[in-house]
Specification:
Rossmann fold; Helicase, Ruva Protein, domain 3; 4 domains; 21 helices; 59% helix
Length: 377
């Protein structure tokens, strides 16, 4: 496989792009080599890029250069395109553009895509439905295990920002010190001290036993450390509640629950709080729309005679939310669901085009949803 010498990352998922860049760094350099062989340039000129790229690494095989916050105009300079055609074999250049799209038709990208030693990588933000699996993978890296229900609860508290998620997982991993090392596990791993150390069992008198105390202590410490290292930290919903400091009283999911469960007074109060805390209205409306559409889809499938398991599978309903979803399906009919979907779609358009204050648009949404449920019940 051809060695990659030039990477170009783009997309709006800053966390995952940074993670990929970190992997590249650690593949080619030790942390001790970073100071002399890793450079970051913000909005550089082409000559600044080439001066570093053409210099030799210091006590390392590679020099790595990260370019970010740059103007696209520098990409099409003849000197930079010339470098792409003939790059230094001892340097790796990583371009990072925080943008959803790039113009792949310019000379720079045409040249880049024609070379086997260059790689163009787009990393899109994860969908909410993809987050649980990604969090599970992050947990493995931190020696944490969470089941689906715990991840669901965790996301409701923390939200979908990957930087926040990573920070909270680090806190959980670091603070979850009270590992439950059961006596039988300890025995299975270490065995009987006397079995492992016949000299202790056969020691003749106190003096002989005393001479082995330090050995016994070493064995105990080694056994405990082995268990502590190899034992995964199984985190439950109860652990999440105790380990995470929840500074916010409510989340967007509490607002969604209040709307769907028809507690409109509570919905007004929660919206006021989360709006003041900076929750994005477009994000709220998107989540609400997704949840209502699931219920509507379930009702339509039920009406067509499909079995419950098929309905749950089609709507990606995990087992621990099964009863909650069924109860919600049973509390709505297709008429009020259709009316609510129309209200949400109208609200989405107003948020994006009307210019009216977002909080007033949302108050109207709550009021109209309440009326629709009364009208079509």
């Amino acid at each position: 496989m051809e060695e990659i010498l030039i990477y170009f990352f783009y997309g709006e998922d800053e966390f995952r792009i940074n993670k990929e860049i970190e992997k590249i760094k650690l593949t080619h350099l030790t942390k001790e080599q970073f100071d002399f062989n890793f450079d970051k340039l913000s909005n550089p000129t082409a000559s600044q890029i080439l001066n570093i790229a053409d210099s030799y690494p210091v006590i390392a095989d590679k020099r790595i250069l990260l370019i970010y916050d740059f103007e696209e105009a520098i990409l099409n300079t003849q000197d930079l395109i010339g470098y792409i055609n003939n790059p230094s074999p001892t340097s790796i250049i990583i371009f990072y553009k925080n943008a959803a799209k790039i113009n792949e038709n310019n000379n720079f990208f045409k040249t880049l895509k024609s070379k086997k030693y260059c790689k163009l990588i787009k990393i899109k933000p994860l969908y909410d439905s993809e987050l649980p699996k990604y969090i599970s993978e992050m947990c493995k890296e931190k020696n944490i295990v969470m089941d689906d229900e715990t991840i669901y609860y965790f996301l409701r508290i923390i939200g979908n920002n990957l930087f926040n998620i990573n920070n909270e997982l680090d806190k959980i991993s670091n603070n979850f010190k009270k590992l439950t090392v059961k006596k039988n596990k300890f025995s299975d791993s270490c065995g009987s001290l006397t079995e492992k150390n016949p000299a202790i069992a056969n020691a003749g008198g106190d003096d002989a036993a005393d001479s082995h105390i330090s050995k016994v202590n070493d064995i105990v410490v080694d056994c405990y450390n082995a268990n502590a290292t190899n034992t995964k930290q199984y985190i439950t919903v109860k652990d999440i509640k105790s380990l995470i400091s929840v500074s916010r009283s409510f989340t967007v999911f509490d607002f969604i629950d209040a709307i769907i469960d028809k507690d409109f007074k509570k919905a007004y109060n929660i919206f006021s709080l989360i709006y003041e805390e900076g929750e994005e209205p477009v994000k709220i409306i998107s989540i609400l729309y997704t949840e209502i559409k699931k219920i509507n889809k379930g009702k339509l499938m039920d009406k067509s005679g499909m079995d419950l398991n098929t309905i749950l599978l089609a709507n990606n309903i995990p087992p621990f939310l099964k009863n909650k979803f069924i109860a919600r399906m049973n509390s709505y009919n297709l008429k009020n669901l259709s009316a609510i979907i129309e209200i949400i779609e109208e609200t989405d358009i107003k948020l994006k085009t009307s210019g009216f204050p977002d909080n007033l648009i949302f108050e109207e949404l709550i009021f109209k949803t309440h009326l629709a449920i009364k009208q079509y019940s």
